[in-house]
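Per reviewer request, we include the raw input and output of the structure prediction for the construct analysed in the revised manuscript.
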Amino acid sequence: MKTSILEGKTAFVTGVASPNGMGFATAKALAEWGASLGILDISDRVFQREKDLKEMGITVKAYQVDLQDRAGIKAAAEDMIATYGKVDILANVAGMAYFGTEEIFKNVTDLSEEEWDFSIGINLKSTFNTIQAFLPGMIERRYGKIVNVSSVTGPLVANPGESPYCAAKAAIVGLTRALALEVGKQNITVNAVAPGWIKTGASTENELAGGQNTGMGRPGTPEEVANLIRFLASDDSSYITGQLIVIDGGNIIQEYKGPSELYY
């Protein structure tokens, strides 16, 4: 439903390459409420998403940048200010893996330093770099909404072979809380969302099966995650900061997670 809740606001969203991903869904959700957009991804597919959004009548500018490139993301932030005059909302959606790569699944004893650094880089350092690039402007204007996409995996549960991912996503929560205390008096809120099993274009058969065994009996959608991010990016969430909000269809709260026909 289109409204003007975010009219006059500018949002910057990372991880906007896939047409079926949470980043693109977030960009659309924010624009639906009136926000102008900057979108970023390491893949040149971000320019196709820019075209898609423009065809919807949305004001948007795309950037192809590696989020581990601190100079590149700083340049994007500066260009956003030059283009729009300000950035009110930062949604850090990028993470896990990017197009052309795969998430690393290895036991701790088998991980190379390079593999560890790669996962920490794309899941944690990328978020830190983006925050550092956009936060000074928010502090100067004494207004901002930062939403970091963490995961249930790491802060709340874990899987064998995913130690770098778990460590990075848990660290995002720590970063979120510390930053919330640092900037709260500047009228800036910082929150994290923790998706569970979400059906995207990159979902594996195992992940989709996990979604079928949640409390709601289905995986979530990128749009459902985007709607939560949008709420946290709006002034309706003005007194919520430093929080991790789970969106997982009740998966975390159930003890038994096997096939429903064997229990519930």
